[in-house]
Amino acid sequence: MPRQCNHDFTPEPEQMALWPDASGNTINGLGEAAERRASLVYWHDPETLAFGQVQKWFYTYNHSPEVDAARAERAEILEQPLPAVAPERAERSPEDWSRLVKERALAASADIVGITRLKAEWLFEGVDFGWTWVVMLGVAMDYDEMMTAPEPTAGAEVVRQYGRGAKAAKGLAGWLRREGWDAGPVTGPLAGDLLLIPPALACGFGELGKHGSIINRALGACFRLSAVVTNVPLVADEEDSFGADEFCVNCRICDDACPPGAILHDKQLVRGARKWYVDFDKCLPYFNQTFGCGICVAVCPWSRPGVAEGLIEKLARRRARLRPSPKDTG
Ligand code: SF4
Ligand code: SF4
Fold first, then answer.
1. Is residue 5 in a domain?
2. pLDDT score of 318
3. Ligand 2 binding pocket includes 251 (Cβ within 6 Å)
């Protein structure tokens, strides 16, 4: 059921007292025409961030028995040590490694997996590392639980699935290390050195939605990401485009439903690329007071189980109808 709100949210004074004299949109490069790497803005070491005090406040404010239990479960997964890299390297063709990596990722609890060659522009500014490949992992969130957003039930589901994503990444990285190839898991809750959305788009997870999350042809926007970086020889997957971007142009379900009105209706110029963008300064206060919100991901029509296939067919039929026939162009 679509939700509508009047965007009249007023943040808690306690949170706003910690608000820095800075704009997350400026840090993110909103309106910048030149390409540059992303700057750290949130979910990193709070002592290094303009929004560090606000980030700390998120963890003091958002407590509930189910969220705390999910965080404890995730912490246990994150604390598990990785195996050492075996001294003998297994040798296989890139095709065989790619097949095995995907099988292992799925067996380690990922729901979707894709491979792409790492690009330097996906690293935050000032970071350099010597990995060649990114294996992207996606884990589905429970739609019914996400539809309770912004209640703690949805927040707990997000934490649980970040835990499952971490389990999948650590399982895959551990397997590669036992095969003699170094590999590192990239998992939440804090973000690492690598942006996850650009490699996820590059490896075929889907298209960027107006709500700033990826829309996948099977899972909609109802999934979370983790990754493994490695140098084992692999084969890159292709991007996947099925009409979600075009669908967003005429849909405003997420922007109507967003309590602080943070979802911008038109694409914006961000560090040299025109794309969908969520107003960081408007989203964050609400996100921070509601266990990470999640309303926009839940209400997106692509997220409703069983809907995506029909939408893709409908968009393909519309494209075929609008395409000029040879008679028109001849
Ligand atoms: S997560 Fe942010 S953008 Fe999405 S609905 Fe909540 S406040 Fe709006
Ligand atoms: S709710 Fe509509 S506009 Fe928003 S991301 Fe989903 S399809 Fe796009």
1. no
2. 87
3. yes
